Amino acid sequence: MGRWSSGGAVLGICHVAGMLDLVALPVWVGTFIAFYGLSPAQAGATVTSFLAGIVIASLVTARLLTRLDPRTVVVAGFVVAAAAFGYLASRPVEAVPFAMLPVIHAIAGLAAGAALSMTHGTIGRTENPHRLFGLANVALAVFSVGFFAVVPALVHSVSPRLLFAVFAGSMSLAAVAASTRFPRALGAGASGSASSQAVPRPAWLIIAAVICLAFNQSLVFSFLERIGDHKGFSHADVTTVLVAVGLVNLVPGALAALTQRRLSPVAVGIAGPLMQAVLALVIVNATGFAAFAAFAIPYVSVVIFTHTFLFGLLSQIDQSRRAVAATPAMMMIGSAAGPAVAGAIVETSGYGGLSYTAVIISGLAIVLMLTFRARTAASSQILRSA
Known about the structure:
The protein is mostly helical. The protein has a single domain (6-385), classed as MFS general substrate transporter like domains (Growth Hormone, Chain: A), CATH 1.20.1250. Helices cover 80% and strands 0% of the residues. It contains 19 helices and no strands. The longest helix is centred in the middle third of the chain and has 29 residues, at 129-157.
């Protein structure tokens, strides 16, 4: 299943449905502010409730990875998540009180989180997790191109409820695909003895670094549409940037798969946060559209590329595969905090505070990766593959 087989394609579809936030954050938050009348803090907190649900579900599901039937959990999870978003898509904006939004989002997050955790756990137990995860991110990029090319315009011109219809449709498709072709067989790294092992201590440093990456990504990207609006750029210009984000996102997953044996995961794990800090500083503080666009377009790609290498590294050093099964948790712990923290920062200190927060978190991620390198220096096996 290291190749893009039918089972790999289903895993890719499920990865896309479960990782919608990586694509939709700016439109999601912007829709709540522009059409539902929410404040930045309320909009961020509502999206955070979905991401927090994913965190909780993933933490629980990852511990039960070898005891649950992956296909059943994935299908049931996406069915429930689709129903939750379908409800929002069917209700007029004025008929949905603010108090209901976090509850519905939390239910959807719990369900999608269980499904995504089983998906990532299955990817981690294949013959080449790095390659398959990279290809799954290519599928996510293909989705993002279509999403940004169509959805923002329809949300503004037709109805904001279309956003939730897209969410519901994506998760329904994943449920159907998983019910027919979700792979049951486990790959070479799935032995019972390995699955009972504890997660190695160095793996927790990688996990913390991934959380930092995800936090920075959601901190800035969730308010990208609002940042552009605040700077006076037109909706058409900002939408063009988002479409370009989707197009550029086609590159990092495939590039990460192709360079698997040529780049050090540890070096990539250090360079990624550094790039995030530089990009965030320019995105938030740029005064001209050209600089804003040039640095905003590759922002998500940095996370995709870096995380693919760290996912592969975790698969190597943690034979239990529970760490990679908890990928949704580590991603969403960062992602969940990002929108809520960003909303609070914007309301208290303006958009400029976002970039300085991103620099601090990037510094922490770099320290974590340097610590990992130092602690694993005695292991020639890890160093040769890292």
